Structure formats: structure tokens, C-alpha cells
């Protein structure tokens, strides 16, 4: 028999993944070399305790158990290789290679057996599955239930993360089967064990993520969170950063611990541990160490007996144990004086803290973005209201964060902060334009200026002017197009010769014809007040004199550049505040000089206003005269049109009378033949558009003569 056996394309199972490699069996032991990493596992022959041959998914497999409890699994063998391996084990290792088939009944209840570092779930005498306890990262207990969590394998596409076992209660007194199960797992699992006494314990701390109240036990190498439902053990090596952030109400403090890798609860990952403290809570703390150990380990950063605010004690202890700096907000101050900005991220409202090297948002979900990973930021107008705006951040990896519903008063502060940190602003050109308008309005009495609002006002003025132009034009067209005298051809009046024809065509047609002028008349009535309203909205006359500045504004315009040079980089709002302080501290004599200048400007303004008012009165008088003249012309034109209509009516009545009875002459014709007053009355009646039969008869007779 050969002294060695070699097998290619053998797979070793490690933490749930199969690693391809070569397996070599020799007199000295078993050697497996990983093809991907080149790592070599060597098992001495003297350490082998048991060998099992069984059928698996990839053909047949070999399971080796060592005397110290380790388990090694190799898959990928052919069925014909069993005899060769069995003989080799007998000859060189003096072991029987036992054949054990897995149970494939599909049952989910059975017996758990602990053998070395292996948990085996058996049905009868056949194993269903086996769990290497070295893969277990966490073991938690509940009522009649034990939960095993496993280390995540980055090499595997799909990893088993959790298995739960239901442990039925037993009648045995003094033995809790759930606790016994958990202790067997923890004794062999790769779980951080709380060996020894804790350095200190903080009771019932409020935790926002994961939510609940936890007892925090501080151990030399890890942090233990103990809650009513879950326990978490956090090694100090997984702590990336520490943050101490004041709440906006100035009565609470956030203490944030950034973790990598995160703590896990099922499929949920907690990358941040957030604790909330009240500033009023105090504590006296005594470390469970003697003074010499404290001095030797912490080198003066901690003492055996300490007292102070609870958040200060927790942050101080964590800083000493983790050996990392605590990040606090920088010099940013919002509109209300707080070091954070109220906003919304996704569906929850929270606080955004601009830091010296990044942004952090608390609390749901917590987000930390460093400046060096930001591609650009963007200021966007709020989608629901103009009283707020959105702050967008896009990272170099393409991830976008949108913090919405930020009050517009925070815009200037946040924009100055981003600009000072030299972050790339996506719409910088637009924002700089807005900032220029902000400078132009710095002389106003308001300390804060909204660039969005000013831009909307400008756009509104442009739209209003366009509306005024279009309404003026449309109003004139409507007034000119509606003239009752000129529409006689379209509308048949009672006294017209074609009145009977229009009425006989049908009631519907006559109704429509009669409604036409009424509809247009209504339009004219609606247009006229709208036109006047538009004229009243035109605003100030650009030729009117401008109001004079106050003494303070005259002084500020003269000294603005000096203040800027004395304080380089000062913002607009800070410049206004500084100017107010300087003006308040100025002596009375200096103020009187600017008061005299303001008085001179006021006199010049009053003089210019008098001249302007005289000119405007003359202009209004000319306008009034032109309006009266236009109305007179329209009235005369209307009278001429009515006369023309009456004349046509009279002619038609003459022709009708002549056709019916040419020899008929009325008594009135003989008596009023030489009367001039009757002719005058006839002309008056013609002007009013009324045609009476007697004058028509007179006209007929005179015409026949």
C-alpha cells in the first residue's frame, strides 16, 4: 500500500463556505492546501480521534474529529474511493472509517447532542445537521427558546445567520433546560465571555438605537449591553468614532458610538449605538479596581472615585477604554443659536449636525458623512412650501442623502458653512447670484434675508407687468369691438324692417341673437374694474424721487468697506450686527454730524417731491381733458349712428304707406303742414330712435307732392 494518498478538487467546509483545494493523506497526518488563498491546514495523525464517511450534496464526504474537539469536513469524493480510504485509515491511523448516512425524513424535532465543538441535531441515531460551535457569534435565550447567531462569511453569497431552537419545559426541579442548552453552546462558541468582574456598571440607560433601556457593563476589552430581551457584546476594537452632541433644547445630550462591523439583531444591522442623557442627571462612580491598577492602566485619565453628570462619566470612561477622541460640534451656529439644524430624512424628523470634518444626522436612521467622501452638495427649494428648503448631499460612490424641511432662516448660515469648508456646490452659480442680492438687501432693517423669496418676488413682478400689458390691450380691443350702433346688421331690433323675418325664423334663433349683445356687455363690465385694478398695481413711478436714508444708513454705506477690511470673511448678518454695535457705541457729537446730513437729504427730498407733485398734477389734468374729449367724441358718434338708423326706419315706413294707400292724407297733415314745431318734434323723436306714424304720413305726403 502506498504511503500517501492525494485527491484533487476536494472541498473543505469552513464557516459555511466550500473552499476548493488539494487533500493529501500521509503517515504523518492530513494536509489540505487551499487553492485560492494558499493556506495549509495540517492535522497530525496522533490528533485524529474519529473518521466518518457519508453521502453529501457534492457526492461523498469525509468528516474528521480530533481529540481536542475540532471538526474538519472535506467533500467531493467519489463512492469508489471509500475502500481505498478505509484501508489507508486502518493501516496508518488505526481508525475505522465508519459509514453514517444523514437523516432525510424532513422532521424538525429531535435530540441535540453536544460533542466537542460540534452541535448535532439527531433524529433517532441519524444526524440531520451539525453546527460547528466555533461559528456561533451570539447566543440569546427567551422563554423556552434559544437563538444562535453566526459569524457572517464575506466569501459566501448566501450565509446562514440565525437558528432558533425550541426547548420544551421539563418537570425536573432545579435545572432550567434553556439555560443548560445556552451554557453548552457558550462554553464552546466563539463568543466574548464576560469573565471577571465589570470595571463599572451604568444602570437603565436610555438607548435610541437599538431602542430600549439597557444596563451597560464596562469590561476591560468589551462593552456589554444587557436589556430585557436582547444582550449585545461590543468589542472595543469595533468602535470607530465617538460623538458627544448637544440636543437642540439644550437640556439633553446624545452620545453616539460608531461601530464597524455593526451589531446584529436578526436581519437588522446597527452601525451606531445612540444613548440619550439628560443634563440634570448626576452620578457618583467608583471603579472596581484599586488605585494602583487605575493609575497604571489609564495613566491619569480616570480615577477610582469620580462624580459629575451622567453623560460626562460615560463619555469619559469610553474615551479612556477605547482610546479614541470624542468628536463634538464645531463653531457652527444655526438661526436659533443651536449647533444643529432641524430637518427630516426619509420619513423621520431629526437633527443634522455640521461638524468640522463631516455631517452627522440623528437619530432615525443615524447617518455620518465625512467631507472627504462628498462629491457635491445642493440647495433645493422645498417641494411643499416656500418657507423651507432641502439640503442634498451626494457621495463619490453615488449615494444621495436628502435632508428636507429645513427652515429658510437656516439657509444663510448653512450656505456660509458649506462655502467655508470649500465643498463643491452643484448650483454654485445660482447661489452666488442669490448671495449678491443678499448683499444688496443688507441695508434693510431685517437682519435675515431670504434669497428664494426675493427671487420669487422678482419673477412675480415680471409676470405682473406682462399681465398688465396683456390686460390693457385686451381691454381696449373689447371696448372698441363692442359698439351697439355698429351691430345693427347682425341684431334685428323691433323697429327694423327685417325684425319680422328674424323673429319668424324661430324662437331659438331670436333668443340667441338677443343674448349676444348682453353677453358682450357683461364682458365689458368685468374688464373695466379689472383694468383699473391692474393700473393700481403698477407700483411706484420710476421718475418719483427716492426716499432719503436715515442717519444710520448714511453712516453704514460710508463705513461698510472699512468694517469688511477690519474683519475679513465676515458674513452679512455678522456685519450688520457689528455695524449696530459700532453705531451704538459712537459718541453723540459724531452722530449729530450724520443727523445733519440726513436732515439735508430730507429737505432735498421734500423739495423734489413738491416739484414732482406739480408736474404730476399737470399731467393728470391733461389726461382728464383727453378722457373727456374722447367721451364726447364717442357720444357724438353714437348719436350719428342712431340718427342713421332712425332715417332708415322712416324711409321704410314711407314706402310701406305709399304702397298701401297712395291717396290717403290724414287730418294732421293738413293742420301741421306749415308748422315748424312739428318738424322739430319729429327730429327729436328721430334722435331718440322712435318712429311715429303721423310724421311718417307727413313725409309720405310731402314726398308725393
UniProtKB/TrEMBL annotation:
Compositionally skewed regions (Low complexity) per UniProt: 497-507, 647-663
Q: Note whether Aminoacyl-tRNA synthetase occurs among the keywords.
A: no
Q: What start-end ranges are recorded for coiled-coil regions in this protein?
A: none
Q: Where in the cell is it found?
A: Nucleus, Nucleolus; Nucleus; Chromosome
What protein family does this chain belong to? Belongs to the SSRP1 family.
Biased region (Acidic residues) positions are: 474-496
What is the protein name given in its UniProt record? FACT complex subunit SSRP1
- GO BP: any one term: regulation of chromatin organization
Q: What job does the chain carry out?
A: Component of the FACT complex, a general chromatin factor that acts to reorganize nucleosomes. The FACT complex is involved in multiple processes that require DNA as a template such as mRNA elongation, DNA replication and DNA repair. During transcription elongation the FACT complex acts as a histone chaperone that both destabilizes and restores nucleosomal structure.
Please provide an example of a Pfam family that matches this protein in its UniProt record.
Answer: SSRP1_C
Composition skew (Basic and acidic residues), residue ranges: 532-544, 586-610, 634-645
Amino acid at each position: 500500500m502506498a504511503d500517501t494518498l492525494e485527491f484533487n478538487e476536494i472541498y473543505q467546509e469552513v464557516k459555511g463556505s466550500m473552499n476548493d483545494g488539494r487533500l493529501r493523506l500521509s503517515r504523518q497526518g492530513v494536509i489540505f492546501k487551499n487553492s485560492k488563498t494558499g493556506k495549509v491546514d495540517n492535522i497530525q495523525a496522533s490528533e485524529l480521534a474519529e473518521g466518518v464517511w457519508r453521502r453529501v450534496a457534492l457526492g461523498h464526504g469525509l468528516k474528521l474529529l480530533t481529540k481536542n474537539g475540532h471538526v474538519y469536513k472535506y467533500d467531493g469524493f467519489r463512492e469508489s474511493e471509500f475502500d481505498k480510504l478505509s484501508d489507508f485509515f486502518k493501516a496508518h491511523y488505526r481508525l475505522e472509517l465508519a459509514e453514517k448516512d444523514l437523516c432525510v425524513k424532513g422532521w424538525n424535532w429531535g435530540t441535540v447532542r453536544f460533542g466537542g465543538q460540534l452541535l448535532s441535531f439527531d433524529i433517532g441515531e441519524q444526524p440531520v445537521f451539525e453546527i460547528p460551535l466555533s461559528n456561533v457569534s451570539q447566543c440569546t435565550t427567551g422563554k423556552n427558546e434559544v437563538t444562535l447567531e453566526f459569524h457572517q462569511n464575506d466569501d459566501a453569497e448566501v450565509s446562514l445567520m440565525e437558528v432558533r431552537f425550541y426547548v420544551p419545559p421539563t418537570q425536573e426541579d432545579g435545572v432550567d433546560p434553556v439555560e443548560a442548552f445556552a451554557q453548552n453552546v457558550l462554553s464552546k462558541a466563539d463568543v466574548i465571555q464576560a469573565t471577571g468582574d465589570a470595571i463599572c456598571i451604568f444602570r437603565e440607560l436610555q438607548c435610541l438605537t437599538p431602542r430600549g433601556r439597557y444596563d451597560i457593563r464596562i469590561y476591560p476589552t468589551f462593552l456589554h449591553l444587557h436589556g430585557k430581551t436582547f444582550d449585545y457584546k461590543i468589542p472595543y476594537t469595533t468602535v470607530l468614532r465617538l460623538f458627544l452632541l448637544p440636543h437642540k433644547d439644550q437640556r439633553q445630550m446624545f452620545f453616539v458610538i460608531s461601530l464597524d462591523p455593526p451589531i446584529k439583531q436578526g436581519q437588522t444591522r446597527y452601525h451606531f449605538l445612540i444613548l440619550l442623557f439628560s443634563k440634570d442627571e448626576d452620578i457618583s462612580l467608583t471603579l472596581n479596581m484599586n488605585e494602583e491598577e487605575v493609575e497604571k492602566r489609564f495613566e491619569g485619565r480616570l480615577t477610582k472615585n469620580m462624580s459629575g453628570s451622567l453623560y460626562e462619566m460615560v463619555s469619559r470612561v469610553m474615551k479612556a477604554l477605547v482610546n479614541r477622541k470624542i468628536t463634538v460640534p464645531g463653531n457652527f451656529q444655526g438661526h436659533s443659536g443651536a449647533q444643529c439644524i432641524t430637518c427630516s430624512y426619509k420619513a423621520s424628523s431629526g437633527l443634522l449636525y455640521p461638524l468640522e470634518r463631516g455631517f452627522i444626522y440623528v437619530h432615525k436612521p443615524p447617518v455620518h458623512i465625512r467631507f472627504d467622501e462628498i462629491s457635491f452638495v445642493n440647495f433645493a427649494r422645498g417641494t411643499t412650501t416656500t418657507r423651507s428648503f432641502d439640503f442634498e448631499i451626494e457621495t463619490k460612490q453615488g449615494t444621495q442623502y436628502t435632508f428636507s424641511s429645513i427652515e429658510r432662516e437656516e439657509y444663510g448660515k448653512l450656505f456660509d458653512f458649506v462655502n467655508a469648508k470649500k465643498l463643491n456646490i452643484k448650483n454654485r452659480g445660482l447661489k452666488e447670484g442669490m448671495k449678491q442680492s443678499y448683499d444688496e438687501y443688507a441695508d434693510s432693517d431685517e437682519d435675515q434675508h431670504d434669497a428664494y423669496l426675493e427671487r420669487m418676488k422678482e419673477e412675480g413682478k415680471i409676470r405682473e407687468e406682462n399681465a398688465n400689458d396683456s390686460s390693457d390691450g385686451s381691454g381696449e380691443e373689447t371696448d372698441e369691438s363692442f359698439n351697439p350702433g355698429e351691430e345693427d346688421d347682425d341684431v334685428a331690433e323691433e323697429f327694423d324692417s327685417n325684425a319680422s323675418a328674424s323673429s319668424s325664423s324661430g324662437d331659438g334663433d331670436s333668443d340667441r341673437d338677443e343674448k349676444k349683445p348682453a353677453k358682450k356687455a357683461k364682458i365689458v363690465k368685468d374688464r373695466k374694474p379689472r383694468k383699473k385694478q391692474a393700473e393700481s398695481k403698477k407700483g411706484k413711478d420710476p421718475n418719483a424721487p427716492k426716499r432719503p436714508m436715515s442717519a444710520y444708513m448714511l453712516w453704514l454705506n460710508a463705513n461698510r468697506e472699512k468694517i469688511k477690511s477690519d474683519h475679513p470673511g465676515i458674513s452679512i448678518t455678522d456685519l450688520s450686527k457689528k455695524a449696530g454695535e459700532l453705531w451704538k457705541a459712537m459718541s453723540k457729537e459724531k452722530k449729530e454730524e450724520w443727523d445733519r446730513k440726513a436732515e439735508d437729504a430730507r429737505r432735498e427730498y421734500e423739495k423734489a417731491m413738491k416739484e414732482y407733485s406739480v408736474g404730476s398734477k399737470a399731467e393728470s389734468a391733461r389726461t382728464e381733458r383727453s378722457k373727456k374729449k374722447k367721451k364726447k367724441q364717442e357720444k357724438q358718434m353714437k348719436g350719428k349712428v342712431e340718427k342713421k338708423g332712425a332715417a332708415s326706419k322712416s324711409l321704410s315706413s314711407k314706402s310701406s304707406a305709399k304702397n298701401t294707400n297712395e291717396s290717403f292724407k290724414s287730418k294732421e297733415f293738413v293742420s301741421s303742414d306749415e308748422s315748424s314745431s312739428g318738424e322739430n318734434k319729429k327730429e327729436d323723436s328721430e334722435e331718440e330712435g322712435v318712429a311715429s306714424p303721423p310724421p311718417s304720413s307727413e313725409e309720405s305726403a310731402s314726398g308725393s307732392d
